[in-house]
Design goal:
Blueprint: E1 2-9, H1 14-25, E2 32-41, H2 43-54, E3 58-61, H3 64-73
Parallel strand pairs: 1-2, 2-3
């Protein structure tokens, strides 16, 4: 299951993101949190990423800033590259 975030990962949105990830994880399948077009991650967002990574949720990112952030949050970041997922969004309808 992939949970995709666009925009900002801030204190205003962390409860919703955490709930979605926890619900997805409760199905017993691997969960990947993909930061696709995220421009801002505040301290609360960084804390959430650390907490989710500690629970075994795979963090992935698109972009230099979020890829660096995700890599620094992942528990095994020094031994694994940051996964980058293709953008499959539908545009221009």
């Amino acid at each position: 299951m992939i949970v995709t975030i666009d925009g900002q990962l801030s204190e205003d949105s962390i409860a919703l993101v955490e709930t979605c990830c926890n619900q997805a994880k409760s199905n017993g399948k691997p969960v990947r949190l993909f930061l696709r077009d995220v421009s801002t991650v505040d301290q609360a967002g960084q804390t959430l990423l650390s907490r989710l990574a500690a629970k075994g949720i795979i963090l992935a990112a698109k972009g230099v800033y979020t890829s660096y952030l995700v890599q620094s949050m992942a528990p095994t970041s020094s031994s694994r590259p940051v996964p980058v997922l293709p953008d499959r969004s539908v545009k221009g309808q």
